Amino acid sequence: MGIYYDQEKQQFHLFNKEISYVMELENQDYLIQVYFGARIQSFYQKSPYPKIDRSSFSPNPANWPDRNFSLDTVLQECPGQGSGDYREPLFEITYPDGTKATQFKYEAHEIIQGKPKLTGLPATYAVDSEEAETLVIHLIDSIRQVKASLSYTIYQNRSVVTKSIQYENLGTETVYLNRGLSACLDFPDAHFDLVQMPGAWSREKQLKRDPLMMGIHTLDSKRGASSTHQQPFIALMRPEATEKSGEVYGFHFIYSGNFQITTEVDTYQQTRVLIGINAYDFSWQLQEKEVFQTPEVVLVYSNTGLNGMSQTFHHLYRERLARGEHQFKERPVLINNWETTYFDFDETQLVNLARKANELGIELFVLDDGWFGERNDDTTSLGDWVVNRQKLANGLKGVADKIRNEGLKFGLWFEPEMISQQSQLFKEHPDWHIQIKDYPTSQGRNQLVLDFSRQEVRDEIKAQLIQILSTVPIDYIKWDMNRNMTEVGSLGANPQQQLETAHRYILGLYEVLEELTTSFPHILFENCSGGGGRYDPGMVYYMPQSWASDNTDAVERLKIQYGTSLVFPPIMTCAHLSESPNHQVGRITDTKMRADVAMSANLGIMLNLEKEATTDLELVKENIAWYQKNRKLLQFGDFYRLISPFESHYTAWVFVDAAKDQAILFFYQILNEVSKPFVKVQLQGLDSQKVYQINGDLFSGDELMNFGLYLNHDLDGDFKSKVIELKSL
Ligand code: DGJ
Fold this sequence. Notes:
Low-confidence stretches: none
Largest sheet: 10 strands, antiparallel
Number of domains: 3
Strand content: 25-35%
Number of helices: 12
Shape: globular
Helix content: 10-25%
Structural class: alpha+beta
Radius of gyration: 27 Å
Bound molecules: (2R,3S,4R,5S)-2-(hydroxymethyl)piperidine-3,4,5-triol
Distance between the termini: 36 Å
CATH architecture of the largest domain: Distorted Sandwich
């Protein structure tokens, strides 16, 4: 691994064994993107930008001798505004004279061992200075008196480059950063398909692959959260690339608020990718000497298809984004009371549920919504984090102690970022939610969003939570968030800073999460937002697991979990074995199918154990025991997608341990057919030299990966599944 600067060629080369990232300075001024891809040992070319006479309508920079050079046609790292590049800019700054043109030029660079922290923001990290190196390139517009410092980190053993930017006002007058994106990557061609993860509530992270089109295309969120509707992710794949072969570039934004990912294919068939905080409803005041730090973008290069990209993301996120005591610990099987009781429960019911859960081998009891204030439905009490004694006569500690006496750990639901209009907190602080002065605020799930951009609001909520966490034995928290922002403004900010509110909210949220997760390191935090409404890498930094969707139907979950696995490893994705008929879609499925889907992620149970008639509890018990025996592999193994639920009535995936000695293959038949075509699947990730045993029969690794296994011939009926365990000899 290294970062090499060739003074003569003015060329930067970041490399490790797998990848190279090359940039160049044009005439010691402009930072030009040259190459990102598979490792190149030595890059000999200089100025490979197209010097052809095509720039007739493309201006040349002021006082530039070479008519062939135009910012309009070169690949750039920090494209500005108003100086001849007519493509989408990376940033936009308004100056006191009301104009915007800005063009950054090279000032200096430095190479740092390791990876510096991004203050107040989640980011990937290095545990020692050997593991990564960081290049910071300082660019300056000396007339406008602004600076951009671009950071690039390369890891020793990962096909990853991370990027972020600090924008700085060096002048004495205030300027406004109206767009301050985190990264630009220009490609010399447009031979790509674009993969995205669109969705909706209970239909999160679906996959969509389309040819990259000419012109400007933006995926974004304007909701104040990363959202169920889009993930801050795209992949650009070569059209011939597949799940297991070909070139793929993955882009993921480590941020939980409004974002935009813009692709632009220009008239020369060059592609620009821009990623950062959404410029919509955003403007950041930069006073004299003030700095704006953007969140980080992770760039992944794979020449082993989408699966290769996913492997890189999975390892990076598990090993160098998630943190804390639980990062490498096996996660407990939990039971959650939500679909069993909704808001209607008392202590006896909960303790009975816990007792039955213990008999099944469940390890953690999660008390969901409805335990506080007067919360008997979703119209009231958010913000009043005081136990409801009518439901829990012995208080939280009372119920927690009893559940622990039943042999389970105790977990609790919170939705700390919200306030109900019917609450004590609202009576005392009607100005504490996100709002515009004298303008009505829309409701969402009968609630308002607390203004986490304000310190006093954060302090109050933190104090309420700390009070509970310090007095009740709590092992787990489900941190929920159930509505998006509207009428975005803050009564705590001046008019010039109103458009900072959405980002300041996210910074405030990160501050609260940092404090709570580090003050209570033993607590396992689970991220939730009405399902996967804010399951993004920003949240992973604070909470090592996330509730992927409120939709627990086994069939729908195949797509949700398959899509989610593009970037997140199964240990981070929580899945519950729930009732049949399913509460979201009404589908009736076998216990085995439901178990096999939930066990291929981080397993939980959401069954009414007292009433459950359609679920075979003996089978649930057996499955929990099997999961616990195998969870090291299922939670920490490598995960390969084999058959996509988006393409057929079947799904398959396989988990392989690091030594390639053990693997577990899950196969699902969604709908049965008569005279059906055979489904044969080629496994991945095995050792081609090893021999594996399946139910006493022997198979070689290369046989399983090249010839494969027939899977569907012995499955009858809809919603069926099978699990195949492989062990090397
Ligand atoms: C939304 C979550 O996704 C559900 O699991 C549940 O916790 C409800 N909120 C409770 O209001």
